[in-house]
Amino acid sequence: MAEITGTGDPARSLSLLWRLVEPAPRGRGAEAGLSVDRVVDAAVALADTEGLGALSMRRLATDLGVGAMTLYTYVPGKAELLDLMVDSVLGEFPSLYSPAADEWRARLEALARASWTQYERHPWLLHVAASGRPPLGPGVLTKYELGLQAVDGTGLDEVAMDAVFTLIEGFVAGTARGVVDQVAAEEATGITETEWWEATAPVLDRVYDPERFPTVTRVGPVAGEAQQAAYDPRRAFEFGLARLLDGIAVLIDDAPSTPITEVLPEKSPWP
């Protein structure tokens, strides 16, 4: 189950995100040299190495060598901590993003590749639902600013600029999740992708009917040989990103004559 940002106290989260308040170290916290930044850094390190499932205020306090009640002096609870963690790692984005300033396609490609790198560094981000109530701290807003700048001056209106950024981000998260899922499967089973397919093949050979699945019979082996797997998320990323940018190019070419609001549905398809 995904963790959700924005479930804590909004005012307290924002105050901490922008460091409008900085709890003064005292007691065990002072002895341990605690600060909000150090608590967040320790939480990110724990999530990076062991996943979000390992993160709790009690576990984090133990790692920092303080009692749980001391930790609450710096961060009100896990909900606010999650907001701080997400904003902190997104604050790394400018150091990963090296765009070509004169061409929108190169900027968007750089944006996507930097996001991919973030998910590789912090795979737990893929298990955080942050789009509905994003932590509006400096890290989140800086990445959003850079994403919008990537398509600024292309002729897209403001709604389309936001939609393109959201589209790129959603695509990268979807393909990066494939890498995380493969790693998780290997860790859970103790066998590699190749070993899994080798174990599957003898049984599949007994039940598989080429006449029932003629297109699978023709395409599957060729694609599998090329990818050396049933699914290669990195190939999917490269192929999908190129096609996505091709589609955005059409949108940009049509931008002066077709505002994005004319092609968006009047209401969400979701109930």
Summarize the structure in words.
With 271 residues, the chain is an all-alpha fold. The protein folds into two domains: 3-90, Homeodomain-like (Arc Repressor Mutant, subunit A); 95-262, Tetracycline Repressor, domain 2 (Orthogonal Bundle), CATH 1.10.357. 63% of the residues lie in helices and 1% in strands. It has 13 helices and two strands. A two-stranded parallel ribbon has the order 1-2. Helix 1 (10-17) runs parallel beside helix 6 (78-90) and helix 10 runs antiparallel to helix 13 (233-254). The radius of gyration is 23 Å and the shape is flat.
Please write out the topology.
Layout: E1 3-4, H1 10-17, H2 27-31, H3 36-50, H4 57-64, H5 68-71, H6 78-90, H7 93-96, H8 104-121, E2 128-129, H9 138-151, H10 158-189, H11 193-207, H12 214-227, H13 233-254
Parallel strand pairs: 1-2
Helix pairs in contact: 1-6, 3-6, 6-9, 8-9, 8-10, 9-10, 10-13
